[in-house]
Design brief:
Blueprint (H helix, E strand, L loop, with lengths): L1 H30 L5 H15 L14 H4 L4 H10 L4 H12 L2 H10 L4 H13 L1 H8 L8 H14 L2 H14 L3 H14 L3 H4 L3
Protein name: Putative membrane protein (DUF2079)
Pfam family, one: DUF2079
InterPro entries: STSV1_Orf64 (IPR018650)
């Protein structure tokens, strides 16, 4: 039992450490004036305007922020700016989102019959994948939240967890309009898997 507790604590520690590392590097890049107005300032301005109850018209794009990629996720993210408006919230949210991808990957591995050691190893390789580090480092993009969302959706499929599936799909769709194509093909895949109870939701 103590060994199992250590395993679960190790997942939490891994998420905490990777979030800290990702957040530190992206913040350091910003402090060293290496961040860019395109796209960091675009989303920072939009989220700030939403948090102030104003229309989020981008002075960079000259359009409403939803006219860019229909990223509805920016509205709930603005709640952080209501508490305290700081661009570092965006770095933290991005770092935490990517780090949380470890959790569904671990349980997906378990679901497919891999032992705990293999599951941990595969989860860690996700964090060490260069693309994960690089997308975290380059400013902020709401697309990043799609990564853990789609992973949790996959976990929900294999574990037949309807509420988790609905929540994950809603979050995934709110990240960017183009991801609706991914969800459509996921529906086709579910149909082929005979998961018709989930297909009807899509």
């Amino acid at each position: 039992m103590n060994f199992l507790c250590f395993r679960y604590n190790f997942i939490s520690i891994t998420i905490f450490c990777s979030t800290f590392i990702f957040f530190t590097f992206s913040s350091l890049r910003h402090i060293l004036f290496q961040s860019t107005a395109w796209d960091l300032a675009i989303f920072d301005q939009a989220i700030y305007l939403i948090s102030q109850g104003k229309i989020p018209n981008s002075s960079f794009l000259n359009i409403h922020i939803l006219g860019d990629h229909a990223s509805l996720i920016l509205y709930p993210l603005s709640l952080f700016y209501v508490f305290y408006p700081s661009i570092y919230w965006l770095f933290f949210i991005q770092a935490l989102s990517l780090s949380f991808g470890v959790l569904p990957i671990y349980y997906l591995c378990q679901n497919q019959g891999l032992n705990k050691d293999y599951s941990f190893t595969i989860s860690l390789t996700y964090l060490f994948y260069p693309l994960i580090f690089n997308i975290n480092l380059f400013d902020f993009h709401p697309d990043v939240i799609f990564v853990p969302a789609i992973l949790f959706a996959l976990l929900a499929i294999f574990e037949d967890r309807l509420f988790l599936f609905i929540l994950s799909i809603l979050i995934a769709l709110s990240c960017k309009s183009i991801f609706s194509l991914t969800i459509i093909f996921m529906g086709l895949w579910l149909f082929l898997l005979k998961k018709k109870n989930l297909v009807y939701l899509l």
